[in-house]
Amino acid sequence: MLALQLLVNGIVTGSALGVMAVSFALIYATTRVFHVAHAGVYTLGGYLAWTLVHRGVPDLPALVLAMAGCVVVGSLIQILLYGPLDRRGAAQLVVLIASLGALAVIQNLIAAVYSPDILEFPPNWAGHVFPLPGGLRLTGVQIATVVVDFIAFGLTLAFAHRTLLGKRIRAVASNPFLAEITRLEPRRVHVYVMAIASALVCLPGVLGPLDYGLQPYGGVTPLLTATIAMIAGGIGSLAGAFALAVAIVVLQNLALLVMPGEWSIGVTFAIFVVFMLLRPRGLFAGKA
Amino acid sequence: MSSRARSLLAALAVSAALGISAPRPARAADAAPITFGAILPLTGPGAVIGTEQMKGIQFALKQQNAKGGIDGHPIRVVFEDDQAKPDQAVLAFNKLVGLQHLPMIYTAYSGPSLAMAPLTARKHVLMLNAGAQSDKLAHASPYLFNTLPTTADEVGVMVKYLRAHGKSTSVVLYENDAAGIGGRDDFVREFKAAGGKILAQEPTQFGQTDYRPALLKLAAAKAQVLFVVTTAGQKSMADQLHQMNQTWLVAGTTFMEDPPTIADPNAKGIIHTQVVANASPELMAAFKKEMGAEMGFFSRQYYNATQIMFALTEHLLKEHKAITGENLRAAIFQIKTFHGLVPMTFTTNTAVVPVAINEMTGGSEKTIATGTAH
Q1: Domain A2-117+130-278 has CATH 1.10.10
Q2: ipTM above 0.85, yes or no
């Protein structure tokens, strides 16, 4: 029973991190920006939803409005920060530092407006416990997380492969120079990508805090795991990023069966270091 | 208006301009200000508690300065943010002591306090801790004074209660830092010494709110007690414990005194030790009016610590002694018993204070036993 509950909990948390990894991979593969401020957008989504819920907006519209807010913030970051830096030919390190700055601004603004306290959503459906076969016990928000995140992942894959905009994004990601001369307008595509990825990351950004509460600095640790998943999954592979995020969290959870908790994160990442040494381009490289 | 009245008004205006007035009580501007320092976590995951602590100090200062300060000296406190990180605490200490030559510093959190402790001894700076409880703090420096009992003292009260109620097996969930590890070690030692058995231990990280993996593993040990030593995220933990539907008794320390957790119906049945520092309803109301927040446990603790600081300063001013770290330290043992929110006696660097055991009732809490720490 313990192993099964750990496995299922790992899949739940992993699917949330998987969507974050997919959204991060989408941005990195297309814009080549290591968008650390994505952690800030993730956090902001939760706070926007929390504000709306506290003003009486039902949960689902609050989620949709929070996603819209994240779309605006993500697009503005691209238009006002990364775009100008790109036009001036800024080095990747400079863009990374700018992104870190944007993250610090978002986090500190949130802390200033909402306080650094852990904020909880009011008691609602999220905390309701569902006993399931096999002795499993999942809360409403855990079930919603796994369902919503898997659907979001599937829709993102379908969007990337089956829509005109998705194909345009993949073309820009594949060869920015060729995309420029074939009038695919890469800079405009970058804005679209930031908007889509920001909306996407808002899903775990809201569902996670429904379960664990909100913290202004709470986005960095998930982003770290998401980044590792993106690299280990193979840069450019959305499926790889998602699968590896789930695998990392499941492994971390199951590792508890054989070792104390303080070792599980270290050992899990040590396995991935060895894995990267053996397969430096990632598991699904080139299978975007 | 008559010429006499006009002359009187003119005389009043001139005397007001020259600052001549009738004798009046001492105000907090008559003498040079006396400045102390406070190094607290004002940003980062520890900021919730750090801000609460800061408000306790600020409220006490406002009250005292409104009464004319101490012997006419306004009292000030310079706040520095250490983010609950030892390295940042040392930088802040060097700034306050090296540059501003402050004789007394408030501190919080075990890691930062332990990092600064050797510096207090070297620089002869009094350090008042009203928030951290690691056992190492008791003997970390002759200049470090704790107004809270150490975790070991508190844990001793809890272990006596648990064993008296027939609990003989326990698992431990602890925060993987100085406070958590210290609390874990104390509980394991005391529980074993009292004839109990520890079946498993699992760590969590500071600021973490996903406890499910660790709780699941601990639940598999099937112990009678889950002893918790974490300083944040208790409400999430209570919700996740509720999800697991375990029969164990959940016990903790003063760190469990978290208003959102106490208000949570899922926290029903959790017990914890609680250092007694009760404030009157009038004081609580005044605090809420002035500071815009409830006077929580840590606000009360730092308000209390600030009353100690006032008593020390007053004592030295009366004896015409300089406000130095050495003199402040000596004054603590000369005064010995302080009467702030709760009587507090210093026979060593750690105060003797009463400790209660509270049980959460799913919305509030009640005291179910009392003891004395230290």
Answers
A1: no
A2: no
